[in-house]
Amino acid sequence: MRWSSIVKTNDEEIEQSDVTVMSYVPKQFDLQTPDSALQYLQEKARGSDFVMNDVLRVLTGVEDIERKTEEQTIELKVLEKVSVLQEEAYQKAYELGLEEGRKQAVGDTSAELQQKSQMLDQLLENMQQIKEEMVRQNEAHIMKMIYEVATRLAFDHVNENQDLVLKVIKKSIEDAQADENVNVLVAPEQLAFLEHVQQSAGRQNDFLKKIKFVASDSVSVGSCVVETNYGVIDSRIEERVSKLWAELKQAVPKVKSPIEPS
C-alpha cells in the first residue's frame, strides 16, 4: 500500500534533507465495536456476572458505550428528579393558589355579605319607620274622621232643635257679665223665632228682655255673637268647633303631613 508520494528535484546534488513531502495519507483503522462486545453488553444488561478486561473494554469501545450509557442513565435520573421537583412545585403552587383564591373568595364574600347585611338592616329600619308613620297617619286620620262626623252630627242636631240657641245665648251673656246694651247677632232664619220667644218669655227666659236681636248672614243656625260695651263674645258653632279641633290636635299623633279639618 502506498502511504505517501515523494517528489525529488532534478538536481542529484541536493541532499536528502531537501526532499519535500507533497501529501500524506494516514492508514485507516476499523474501530467499530465487534459483535461479541455488543453481545457482552446485552448479557451484562440482563445481569451477567462476567467482567471484561479493562484493555478490551477500551479497545472494543465497550468502555465508551458504558460511559455514555451511564451518562444517559444519570441524565434520565436527573430529568426524572427535575420532573418530580417540577411536579411538586406545580402542585404546591396550585395548592397555594387555591388557598389564596379561597381566602380571597372568602374575603370578598364576607365583605359582600356584610354589605348586604347592612343594607338589609337599613331596609328593616326604614320599614319600621314607615310602619310607625303609617300607624300615626291612621290614628290622625281616624281622629279627623271622628271630628268630622261629630261636627256634622252637631250641626244636624242644632238645625233640628232651634231651642238650643237659647242655651247658647244665655251662656254667652253670662260669660259677658253684661246687664244692659246687649246686641246679639243671630242667623236670619232664627230671628223671628227668638223675637217670638222674647215677647212671650217666662221667668226662665228673663235674660232675653234686655237683648236686642240682630240678623246677620255671618251667623249660622244655633250660633250667636254677643256684643256688649266691654267686648264681643263669638259663640258661633264654627268658632267653637275650631277651638275644639285645636284642643284635639294636641292629642293627635304627630305626622309628616299635617292633618287639618275639611
UniProtKB/TrEMBL annotation:
- Report whether Lipid biosynthesis shows up as a keyword of the record: no
Stretches of the chain forming a coiled coil according to its record: 110-140
Organism's domain of life? Bacteria
| Occurrences of domain Flagellar assembly protein FliH/Type III secretion system HrpE (ranges) | 115-243
Pfam families in UniProt: FliH (PF02108)
Q: Which GO terms describe its cellular component?
A: cytosol
GO BP field: bacterial-type flagellum organization; protein transport
Keywords, A to Z, come to: Bacterial flagellum biogenesis, Bacterial flagellum protein export, Cell projection, Cilium, Coiled coil, Flagellum, Protein transport, Transport
Tell me the InterPro entries matching this sequence.
Flagellar_FliH/T3SS_HrpE (IPR018035), T3SS_Stator/FliH (IPR051472)
* Similarity field: Belongs to the FliH family.
Q: What does this protein do?
A: Needed for flagellar regrowth and assembly.
Q: What is this protein called?
A: Flagellar assembly protein FliH
**Which species?**
Pseudobdellovibrio exovorus JSS
